[in-house]
Structure formats: C-alpha cells, structure tokens
UniProtKB/TrEMBL annotation:
The keyword Membrane applies. The keyword Electron transport does not apply. GO terms for cellular component: photosystem II. It is found in: Membrane. It comes from the Eukaryota. The chain crosses the membrane at residues 20-39, 60-82, 102-122. This is Uncharacterized protein. GO terms for molecular function: chlorophyll binding. It is a multi-pass membrane protein. Pfam families: PSII. InterPro entries: PS_antenna-like (IPR000932), PS_II_antenna-like_sf (IPR036001).
Amino acid sequence: MALYELVVFDPSAPVLDPMWRQGMFVIPFITRLGITNSWGGWSITRGTITNSGIWSYESVAGAHIVFFGLCFFAAIWHWIYWNLEIFCDECTRKPSLDLLKIFGIHLFLSGVACFGLTCEVIE
C-alpha cells in the first residue's frame, strides 16, 4: 500500500494539495513517525534533498515487506515443527508448553529486531 501511494503521490504542492487531499492513507502515518524524505529526492517539508539516509518512505515500505516475509516463514516453521520434543514433558510425555518462556523468546527476538532497525549512527 505504501509503495502504491508513493507511486501516485505528487509532492509538488504540499500546501495546496496535501497528501490527505490526494487520498493517501499510509504516508501520513509514516510521516507522523518522523520520516520526511524520499529516495526520489523530494521531502515532505518542501525541500530538495541530496542524501535521504537509510530511512525514507521507500525503505519503510521495503522493511514492512521483508518483515512480512519473515513472519510468513516463521508461521510455516511453527506449523511444520509443532510437535518437537522440546514441547513435551519428559515425565508424562504429554504436550506441555512453557508459555512464559515462549513469549519471552519471541519478545526478545522482536526487541532485537526493532532495536537493530532504529539505531542510527550519529555523524
């Protein structure tokens, strides 16, 4: 959706024809997060830029596509390996899940991913 909006968005007149008047839905939310530059050389703050850095509208859309793919493959992995021996109690051989440990592992991995994506080198 964000990539489609970037294709049809016209940044030439942000005052008279702002993004919400052009029917944009996702780009205003990305802008509220602090993304103002595009790899196309335009800025939502009416300036021409030469170096937009890593985080631009296009990179945010690309990161969402990549993380969707990772979530899809994680869902497939969890579906295939649903009956691993690690999920069974050793004494009773019945399925038992330590949900706090599972939640902690997933929370840690998502935290590492978010921290890795938001850290920028200050020049």
